[in-house]
């Protein structure tokens, strides 16, 4: 794993998570933590992260797309992006959403954020042509 690409991916993730941490701070200080849990912004942030990954995957050259399991990763990225944007649309259009779905989107966001860093690093390395045989 290229150290520079990995550091860039961590910075990207931090700048996506940072506004949510600011919202958390505001909600905690105003004693309104439950409304923080009911934000649809987690799905929006996930769709932004994986939309960025999808855009990166389109910049990978055809030669590098043959390395490893690129098409599997691209399908994974696309599926996460579509699922997260679908959740966001659902939260915006359905008035009575069950609380467990809000919790699910937060867990989904956390898992997607964890996988974002290695996936972003991989896509950057593929774009730069430095990914060779899984190393």
Q: What is shown here, in short?
A:
This protein has 135 residues and is mostly helical. The chain has helices spanning 3-29, 33-37, 41-58, 62-65, 70-93, 99-128.
Description:
The chain has 135 residues and is mainly alpha-helical. The protein has helices spanning 3-29, 33-37, 41-58, 62-65, 70-93, 99-128. It has six helices and no strands. The longest helix is centred in the last third of the chain and has 30 residues, at 99-128. The model has no long low-confidence stretch (mean pLDDT 88).
Q: Count helical runs.
A: 6
Mean pLDDT: 88
Low-confidence stretches: none
Helix content: over 70%
The total strand number stands at: 0
Structure classification: mainly alpha
Proportion of beta-strand residues: under 5%
Query: Given the C-alpha coordinates, what overall shape results?
Result: elongated
**Largest sheet, if any?**
none
- Cα distance, first to last residue? 7 Å
Order of helices and strands: HHHHHH
Rg value = 17 Å
């Amino acid at each position: 794993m290229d150290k520079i690409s990995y550091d860039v991916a961590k910075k990207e993730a931090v700048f996506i998570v940072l506004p949510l941490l600011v919202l958390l701070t505001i909600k905690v200080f105003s004693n309104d933590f439950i409304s923080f849990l009911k934000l649809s912004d987690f799905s929006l942030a996930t769709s932004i992260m994986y939309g960025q990954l999808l855009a990166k995957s389109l910049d990978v050259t055809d030669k590098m797309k043959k390395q490893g399991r690129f098409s599997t990763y691209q399908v994974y990225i696309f599926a996460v992006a579509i699922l997260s944007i679908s959740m966001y649309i659902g939260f915006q259009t359905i008035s009575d959403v069950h609380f467990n779905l809000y919790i699910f989107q937060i867990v989904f966001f956390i898992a997607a954020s964890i996988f974002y860093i290695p996936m972003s690093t991989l896509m950057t390395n593929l774009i730069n042509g430095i990914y060779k045989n899984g190393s």
